[in-house]
Amino acid sequence: MCQLIVTAFTSLDGVMEAPGGEPGYHNAGWSMSSVEFDPAAYEIKGSEQDQAEAMVLGRVSYQSFGAVWPSMEEQFEKYNAMPKYVLSTSLRKNELIDGWGDTQILRSTAEVARLRAGEGGPLIVHGSATLVHSLQEHQLIDRYHLLVFPILLGSGKRLFSEASLATQKLQLVDSAVYSNGIQKNIYDVVR
């Protein structure tokens, strides 16, 4: 079975929307403007890229990242080359991004479950709020890699689903606090 890992930048109040400056959100770019840069806080991003076997993305994140990451070969070399799975009911094959690695379209959460049940290394989910909510609701997430920023954003897309779910117990397996106040919290989902 593959391990399905959700990785996210989040505010202390759980907002994950537009950390890199995506348009349309009033606090866009909060991860770059809210705290001083401390490279140690982002070391997890390199290890995620080294360990992941494939990315699972929602359509919006796939299109957003695909517009930028292929031109950032130095930072995203392994992500650019690895297979990508996009969960979308609307994305068409002719809309896939040329030159951004092998990409397959999945049409249902059941297809993600089959992918996760297969053999191989970790599958990593970046961004993709709607996808993350669906994966939570179907209990398909195995681990969370969270960088929690010491800010409150109020409104915005939240990392965690607001659906009425059964309790999901998490076990903290690694954590750190950095000079800029960012907290790294890695949780395994207890089954």
UniProtKB/TrEMBL annotation:
PANTHER family: 2,5-DIAMINO-6-RIBOSYLAMINO-4(3H)-PYRIMIDINONE 5'-PHOSPHATE REDUCTASE, DIHYDROFOLATE REDUCTASE FAMILY PROTEIN (AFU_ORTHOLOGUE AFUA_8G06820)
Residue intervals of the Bacterial bifunctional deaminase-reductase C-terminal domain: 4-183
Superkingdom per UniProt: Bacteria
Annotated protein name in UniProt: Dihydrofolate reductase family protein
SUPFAM superfamilies: Dihydrofolate reductase-like (SSF53597)
Organism: Glutamicibacter bergerei
